[in-house]
Design brief:
globular, 7-stranded mixed beta sheet, 34% helix, alpha/beta, Rossmann fold, 241 residues
């Protein structure tokens, strides 16, 4: 658990955990970042799909720091203000204001996650090269906000059904270039698949290495093929460290 000071108060980022399947000390760490309105319990069971490939990896799925207004059981990493990628592309004054607010919120959440990552790595005695970030939806937004701006590159980032916030500012702010895999359903009505292509283009333009997979017939979720692709990717990234 990381105790993070912010705006005169402290936020304790914590959530469900799963130790290495092989027992003993962790050799890798996978941090799972949930989506808007969910919590860490929504993603921690992804570890079950990858523990055979990564028997020495520890998994943690922190709860986001803020409650979702009107949904007391759900959390948000930052307010999203009616996120609509098509609207943001049009660049109207209202859309620009929403984009700016999301960028500010994402930067604040990144500071919290940065401290959490530092504390978790220190707790298990691992380095950045032993770390992978996995996000879903808003968790993907945060993973793509944070990973490329770390002082050192983590082993890799997997993003399901998400988007890249503020691609126009990424190149100037990018300090690390971990390999990234994006997976998205072509029938996603919450975060349309175009957001994945926009993210891949923005990351590539900033010098990042990105592979993407469009899943036919999939809505806003994760399917077995996506899990398998992610497991293979994580194995490649973490086991060669």
């Amino acid at each position: 658990m990381a105790i993070v000071p912010t705006a005169g108060r402290t936020i304790a980022l914590n959530g469900p955990r799963m130790p290495p399947g092989a027992g003993g000390a962790a050799r890798q760490l996978v941090i799972l970042l949930h989506g808007y309105g969910a919590d860490g319990a929504d993603l921690i069971n992804l570890a079950d799909h990858w523990r055979t490939r990564l028997p020495h990896a520890a998994f943690v799925a922190p709860n986001a720091p803020e409650r979702v207004p009107g949904a007391p059981s759900g959390y948000q990493w930052f307010p999203i203000g009616g996120y609509d990628p098509d609207d943001l592309r049009q660049g109207s004054p209202a859309a620009a204001a929403r984009a700016a607010a999301m960028a500010t919120g994402a930067a604040h959440a990144r500071a919290l996650l940065d401290r959490f990552i530092d504390a978790e790595l220190a707790a298990v005695g691992l380095e950045e090269r032993n770390l992978a970030l996995v996000g879903f939806s808003q968790g993907t937004m945060l993973a793509l906000e944070t990973g490329p701006r770390r002082a050192q590159a983590c082993a890799g980032i997997v993003g399901f059904s998400g988007a890249l916030i503020g691609p126009e500012r990424l190149e100037a702010e990018m300090t690390a270039r971990p390999p990234i895999m994006l997976v998205h359903g072509d029938s996603d009505s919450v975060v349309p698949a175009e957001a994945m292509f926009d993210a891949a283009a923005g990351l590539s333009a900033a010098g990042g290495t990105v592979e993407w997979h469009l899943r036919p017939g999939l809505g806003h979720g994760i399917d077995p093929r996506g899990l398998a692709l992610a497991g293979h990717f994580l194995g490649q990234c973490l086991l060669q460290a």
